[in-house]
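Hi P.,

Sorry for the delay on this. The queue was packed all week, but I finally got your sequence through. Input first:
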Amino acid sequence: MHIKALDQVSERGKRHMRYGIQTAKGRQLLKRHSFIPEKDLVVAFCERASFDWGSHCLEVNNFNPGLFQVPKTATHIGVTLGMLDFDFNTFERSLSVSPVHFLELGGGVASFSLTPDQEIAPEHVGFVVLGLRYYEIIETEVYAFKQPLGIRVLDVLV
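Then the structure:
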């Protein structure tokens, strides 16, 4: 609602998010929004992450998951990058997601990069979304925790 209220193009009562998100404050509000209860680990991870629209690459530098409390049975954190192109007029969308990158808990400081499976050149409003989830990996078997650790919008391109 706060983003929609930033629409200065439409008359009151007919304001729309598509115009509010075009403002710097609208993009900032969306990047700060927590889709599930925010965790310190997610905030710290996002501070170490940067996305480049030219290469469609997420770079994460010097992240140490060992600095945070994690569930006893978790062995890894899975990181997924998504690029979404969304048309606010027609509600059509195109989404490309990266394979899950696993960070071993107790593995120390890590740096890595992620790219989505397909490159999407946003034609409307582009969103970069990051998802984190705990996993337990035993030999070759991968078990995802039911609840995501965090979902966050990293960047918006209008």
